[in-house]
Request: fold
Amino acid sequence: MGHLKPAAPTLPAVATEVLTSIYQHRLLSTAQAHAMHTPGRTRRWAEQVLAQLASRGLTAFVRPGRGGPRLYYLTLAGAQAVEVIPTRVETRRKLITPEQAAGPLWRHTLAVNDTGIAFMQAARERGDDFGPLGWRHEIAHHAPSAGHGRRELLISDALLTYLALGPGHELTFHYRLLELDRATVPTDTLAGKLARYADLYRHAPAGRGEVPGKPAWRARYPIFPDIICILAGQPRASLQRRAQTVLALCREDPRLRSAPQVRVSLALLEDLQARGPFAPIWRQPNDPSQTLDWLGGPPGAR
Reply:
């Protein structure tokens, strides 16, 4: 008589949440999964959840570089498991290979997630609504390209949707389009991309099926999102100089000068992680000497 193979242990409920987050964010470190889903438990608990998902073939991990962190990504089986969940997030399947997971963009992806986690932790403290699925990666917009008017894609690194609870219990949605900069492009290139959001704001296509004169962004957003640019990847002094240069270039850009409705704010990722988005860590082109919170108000405004 043969021996029955013992059944695999039941996955904890949080495992499904972790799997869904990896589906949406493509790549998560153990520290990020812990901050997002098991903040009240030890990091070891998060490690065990991730290990169980990997043992079921739903995720895999790589370790880029020497002594790099474990980076978890979904397998095809993991993506299929998420897509049969009735309450899943929208289908955004973009499976990555082990080579891509350990490739040159992993630091950028983690930095985008670190930005979202900083907002998520602030929301927890304040009783606002911004959870592990509060940001979505790579949001593409059609916008005219500089110089020749053809429509080209303007791809934001992420869209953040933050629901704030006001003092009188009123609810307010705040939308932010994120540009995550790790100093891999020249400062004028970064400033030029930020200025393209003014082109997006004015873009009103007149093609078939379009409403003449109506900006295209209104089909997606109730209000035009503010732009937040987060700087990372270099020593603090270098990033501060880079921020000053980008702010100066944006201040002089005619596209942004003629579109005051497009608000751009810059901050350093290390400040965002250490102090949170409601701290006076943000600077804007119109007055770079003034520091604001992420809603554009002075410290303690909320």
Q: What stands out?
A: The first helix runs from residue 13 to 25.
